[in-house]
Amino acid sequence: MEATSLLSIPSSSLFSPLRIAPSAVSRISLQKSSVTCAALLPTLNEPRKKHWKRGEYPGLIETSVPEFANFNKRRTPIKNIKKKVDRRNSARAWANTVTEALADAIDKKQWSRALEVFEMLKLQPFYLPKEGTYMKLLVLLGRCGQPGQACQLFDEMLQEGLEPNAQLYTALLAACCRSNLIDKAFAILEKMKSCPLCQPDVHTYSILIKACADASRFELVESLHEDMAERSISPNTVTHNTVLSGYGKAGKYEEMEKILSVMLASELGKPDVWTMNSIISLFGNKGQIEMMERWYEKFRDFGIEPETRTFNILIGAYGKKKMYEKMSSVMEYMRKLAFPWTTSTYNNVIEAFSNVGDAKHMEYSFDQMRAEGMQGDTKTFCCLIRGYANAGLFDKVKRSVKLSSRLEIPENTSFFNAVLYACAKAEDLMEMERVFKRMKDKLCHPDSSTYSIMVDAYNKQGMRDKVYNLKREQETGSPNLLMENGDVESETKPDSNQTLLLVESEIENNEGPHI
To answer: Which of 15, 34, 333, 387 sits most deeply, having the most CB atoms within 10 A of its CB?
Structure first.
C-alpha cells in the first residue's frame, strides 16, 4: 500500500525541496518538548541522596550511577584535608625558616643578627628552651668578644627555668677569658664550685689557665695548678700547651723547657702536634728561624709527625724573612707527602709577595688558588689589597674590593685596615675617611693599627687637628667589641680594664646574672 502510494507521487514532487506548513512545525516542537519532559520527570521526582563524607556514616554510599560507585566509596574530602596540610606545612616551614636563619647567623659569626632571630624564635608557639641553643649562642658571643651579651643571655636562660650545667658555665667563663676579663672569670669559677652539679673540670681550668698565661699572670697559673691538685684534676696536654705557649710569648724559655720535660715524663699530658705547632709558630712569628728549625727537629726526634698546619707555619715564617727557596722546598715536600695545599698555605705565599709589592707572583699564586677551587678568605683579600697598594696599582685595589664584595667575603677590622692602608698609600684622604665611616657603620671596632695608619696619613699632610681628634678618640673611645662578621680570633684584644667597665655597665643596665 505504501509502495503504491509512493510510486503514485510524481517525480517532481519527490526531488523538489521539502515544504512544511508552519502549523506542522509548531505541532512537532510541542511533541518534542513533551517527550523530553517525560524523560526527565522520573529523575526530577527521585529524592536527592545525601553524599556522606567519610567518617560521618558507617554504611555504604549508594549512587544512581553504578560505574562511579567504587570511586565514591573511596572519595575523601580533599578540600578539608588540603587546608589541614597547608596549615601544618606553613607552621613547619616557619619553624624551619627561623631555625635555619639562626643557624646561618651563628655559622657566619653574625652575633647581632643571631640574637634578633633568637628573640623571634622565642615568640613562636612551638619554641622550647634548649641547652644546646644557648650553648651555641654563648660560644658565638665569646668568639665575637661580647662578654656582656653573654652574661645577659645566661641570665635569660636562668629566667626561662633551665638548670645550668658545667658546660654552660664553662662557655660563659670562656667568653670572659677571650676578652681578658680574668677577674670575672674567677668569679664564675667560684660560682661553679658552689654548685654541686656544676663542678669545674680540666677543660674549665685549661681555658682559665690560658687566659692567665696570655696575660703573663703566672702567679695565677700556679694557684690554678694547686687548685687542680686539691681537686684531683690532672692537667692534660691542652693544659700544658697553654702554659707552654704563655711562657714562650713572655720569653721565659727555661720555664718553657721545664714544662716540656714535665710533659715528656707524664703519662696523660704527652706532647703532641699541637705542642709542636705552638712552639715553632712562637719562634716563627718572632723571626727566629734557627730556633724554629731546631725545635722542629727536636719534636721530630720525639716521634711527633708534622701536619698541614705545621708546614703552613714554616711557609709563613720563611716568607716573612724573604727566604723563598726554603718556602718553595717546604711546598714541594708537602706535595711529595700528599699533604694538600690549603687556603692558609696560599695565604702565606700571597702575603710573602704582598709585603714586597711583587704583584706578578702574588697574582699568579691567587690565580692558582682559584684554579684549585678555593675562593679565598678575608686574609687573602687583605694581602691582595696591601700588595697592590705597595706596588702602586690602585685600580687593582678597587677591583679586589669589588671582587670580595661579589664573593661575600666577611669584612672585619683587618679588612678595613687594609683598605685604609691603600687609601693612605694613594694619599686619598677623602676616600680614607669614607672607609673609616663605613667601618664604624659595620660595627667593626678600630684597633691600634687603624689609628696608626690614619695618623701617619694626616701627619704627612700636616693636618694636626685631624691627628689630635683621632688620638683623643682612641684614648676615650668606647671599647665595645667588635664585630658582626668575620674572623674575630685574629683581632687585637682590647684593654681588659676598659672592657671590664663596659661589661659591668651592660650587666647593670640589663640586670645581668649575679654570679
So the answer is: 387
